[in-house]
Amino acid sequence: MHDEKLIKELKRKALQIRKWVIESIYRAGSGHPGGSLSIADILACLYFHEMRHDPKNPKWPDRDRLVLSKGHAAPALYAALALAGYFPVEELKNLRKIGHFLQGHPCMKKVPGVDMSTGSLGQGLSVAVGMALAGKLDKRDYRVFVILGDGEVQEGQIWEAANAASHYKLDNLIAILDRNKLQIDGPTEEIMHTEPLAMRWKAFGWDVIEIDGHDIEEILDTFHEIKLNEKPTIIIAHTIKGKGVSFMEGTLSFHGKPPSHEQYIRAMSELEQEERELNG
Amino acid sequence: MVSAILTDKKRNLRDAYSSALIELGHKNPDVVVLDADLALSTKTKRFGTVFPDRFFDMGIAEANMMGVAAGLATCGKIVFASTFAVFATGRCYDAIRQSIAYPELNVNIVATHAGISVGGDGASHQMLEDIALMRVLPNMTVIAPADATEMEDVVPAIAEHEGPCYVRIGREDAPIIFETHGAFEIGKGYVLRDGSDVAIIATGTMTAEALKAYDLLKEEGIDAKVIHMPTIKPLDEELVREAAEETGRIITCEEHSIIGGLGDAVAMAIAKKPVPMVRIGVNDVFGESGNARELMEKYGLTAENIVAKAKELIEK
């Protein structure tokens, strides 16, 4: 059980992330709202409670790392980083704009707090394996988090990395799979089946936990459950693509499309309404 | 000029690689070595025997190896990742592009069994496009050392260099042409023989052939300048332009496709002030099985072909 104040605070952060996802993508005129909104609660829990990190010292060797392997959800990551204090929140208005540092996909050389450049799906888990190996080598107790898309696990390299992670007993590696069940061409199971997901990961030697990826309390509890038992862990987070904006929820059309002006107004008013209700 | 000799003494560059890695491993605890189930062939296994904690066999999963190398590098490790050139580059191109070159990480990809002299394994294993593939990547340094002595200098140099490096070496024992260490510097070419009739610019295994060609041309009264160009990117463009001005003719030699390699890099360097040029390399075809020497002869990667091309160029 976590205290209500913390849960409320993390819900507030998740809403702020969602608002900035809509704001920044609307201003950019392009981007991926659906898969950004689906990971907002997870990112809020990670950056505002679970992860050991210091926005004033982004390269701190003992920090927990996060690799956003599904790099197209960059707007959500940038919002979390800005709200945490890695760079001014106002910069979020310059997403994808020439001469500004917030690239369409995460770039570690340009954005403080981004631990790895991503964008080409299927590569982040391998990188996270390398980071976790380095932690073991250096006897540092940091953890490595990696967020995967559910369409992304159709990439073969994911399974090469999954295999290496269990082979090298990387229990400091925690993957979170954003199971929103939609990829750009359609439902994952229609495009290229990924089930039985949990069994596949178990067969590759991972501990598998399935949760509701929008339930803050459950997310926090799950992180506490993870044991150092010489096995990597994957959290299959059941989520809703576009979560938080009624007309984006569970739809394909906002995978990689910005909201129109009207949609932007509507989305922001929905999120603001939710914020007011939360603040009661 | 840098002193270079031609004798029958040979050494394998893979042996030089593993010796240099071990020496580096003793000096620097951050050195980590990865391989993809070819550790006995690339000879990284020797490092693994001395430093078992810092050697990881990633199995037959090369793209993952490149990603793991990147992750280790983000944590301050100096990573060497080895496998055959054909798997290291073509198979892993996107992993290298996205996870190593774009974030400019300290990953050194040392690929063995490059070129047609791989021999019996045939075209599937004879990598002739790797220089081209790695050269187009921003931030990437591309090196093809000529002999074991130079390889021993390359290893500490790339370890010290900030950013990714690609090094390609062959499978065969190679003639020793440098008697002493210390000449190699990333981005520098070396005049090994001076002459004013034609400049022969060679890299990797072809530098020994260029030195042989120099002697053969001398017998026919032709004075060639021989330049060894271990770093293909960044290219020593100044040296190339000087050679072009001094000799008025250039021949490039590489055990690689004539497309995208040293020849193209040199041509680009003199594009503003061009001189007649011949590129010796494999002429946009796949290789085949055979022994190394037979293949080098069949595909024109010999001193004799350099001589023939030099004479053609001078007669024109």
Write the topology of this structure.
The complex is a heterodimer of chains A (280) and B (316).
Chain A: H1 4-28, H2 33-37, H3 40-50, E1 65-68, H4 74-84, H5 124-137, E2 144-149, H6 156-167, E3 173-179, E4 182-183, E5 186-187, H7 188-191, H8 197-203, E6 207-212, H9 216-225, E7 233-238, H10 261-279
Chain B: E1 10-12, H1 13-27, E2 31-35, H2 39-42, H3 45-50, E3 55-57, H4 62-74, E4 78-84, H5 85-91, H6 93-101, E5 107-112, H7 130-135, E6 141-143, H8 148-160, E7 165-168, E8 173-175, E9 190-193, E10 198-202, H9 206-219, E11 224-228, E12 231-233, H10 237-247, E13 250-257, H11 262-269, E14 277-282, H12 292-298, H13 303-315
Parallel strand pairs in B: 2-3, 2-4, 4-5, 5-7, 6-7, 10-11, 10-13, 13-14
Antiparallel strand pairs in B: 1-8, 6-12, 9-11
Helix pairs in contact in B: 1-8, 4-6, 9-13
Compact summary:
With 280 residues, chain A is α/β, with parallel strands linked by helices. Chain A has helices spanning 4-28, 33-37, 40-50, 74-84, 124-137, 156-167, 188-191, 197-203, 216-225, 261-279; strands spanning 65-68, 144-149, 173-179, 182-183, 186-187, 207-212, 233-238.
Strand content bin of chain B = 15-25%
Classification by helices and strands of chain A: alpha/beta
* CATH top level assignment of chain A: Alpha Beta
At the third CATH level, what is the topology name of chain A?
A: Rossmann fold
Q: Determine the fraction of residues in helical runs of chain B and give it as a percent range.
A: 25-40%
State the distance separating the first and last CA atoms of chain A. Answer: 22 Å
Instruction: Domain count of chain A, please report it.
Output: 1
Structure description:
Chain A is an alpha/beta fold. Chain A has one domain (4-279): Rossmann fold. In chain A, 42% of the residues lie in helices and 12% in strands. Chain A has helices at residues 4-28, 33-37, 40-50, 74-84, 124-137, 156-167, 188-191, 197-203, 216-225, 261-279, and strands spanning 65-68, 144-149, 173-179, 182-183, 186-187, 207-212, 233-238. In chain A, strands 1-2-3-7-6 form a five-stranded parallel sheet, with helices on both faces. In chain A, strands 4-5 form a two-stranded antiparallel ribbon. The longest helix of chain A is centred in the first third of the chain and has 25 residues, at 4-28. Chain B has helices at residues 13-27, 39-42, 45-50, 62-74, 85-91, 93-101, 130-135, 148-160, 206-219, 237-247, 262-269, 292-298, 303-315; strands spanning 10-12, 31-35, 55-57, 78-84, 107-112, 141-143, 165-168, 173-175, 190-193, 198-202, 224-228, 231-233, 250-257, 277-282. Chain B is globular and about 60 Å long. The model of chain B has no long low-confidence stretch (mean pLDDT 97). By secondary structure, chain B is α/β, with parallel strands linked by helices. Chain B folds into two domains: 10-175, Rossmann fold; 190-315, Rossmann fold (3-Layer(aba) Sandwich), CATH 3.40.50.920. Chain B has a seven-stranded mixed sheet, sandwiched between helices. A five-stranded mixed sheet of chain B has the order 9-11-10-13-14, sandwiched between helices. Chain B is built from 13 helices and 14 strands. In chain B, helix 9 (206-219) crosses helix 13. Helices cover 40% and strands 21% of the residues of chain B. The A-B interface holds A 61, 65, 67, 107-109, 115-120, 123-135, 137-138, 156-157, 160-161, 163-164, 167-168 and B 32, 53-54, 56, 58-59, 61, 63-77, 94-95, 97-99, 102-104.
